[in-house]
Amino acid sequence: MNQAVKAIAITRGFVAPNGIDLIAIPAFTKVEIDGEERTAIRFMVQAR
């Protein structure tokens, strides 16, 4: 989670000089791992 948030912040800084403003929307989602349903966090990253 920590690395994902850092990666989004670094990427925002990288693309900002090109006039691209990224937003990240965190959301909970269900995933199946080894036959068990788990809760995960998903980041939807979009240009604004």
Question: What does this molecule look like?
Answer:
By secondary structure, the chain is α+β, with helices and mostly antiparallel strands. The chain has one domain: Translation Initiation Factor IF3 (2-Layer Sandwich). Helices cover 29% and strands 50% of the residues. The chain has one helix at residues 2-15; strands at 22-33, 36-47. A two-stranded antiparallel sheet has the order 1-2. A hairpin with a 2-residue loop joins strand 1 and strand 2 (36-47). The two termini are 23 Å apart. The model has no long low-confidence stretch (mean pLDDT 96).
Q: What does this entry show, briefly?
A:
Helices cover 29% and strands 50% of the residues. With 48 residues, it is α+β, with helices and mostly antiparallel strands. A hairpin with a 2-residue loop joins strand 1 and strand 2 (36-47).
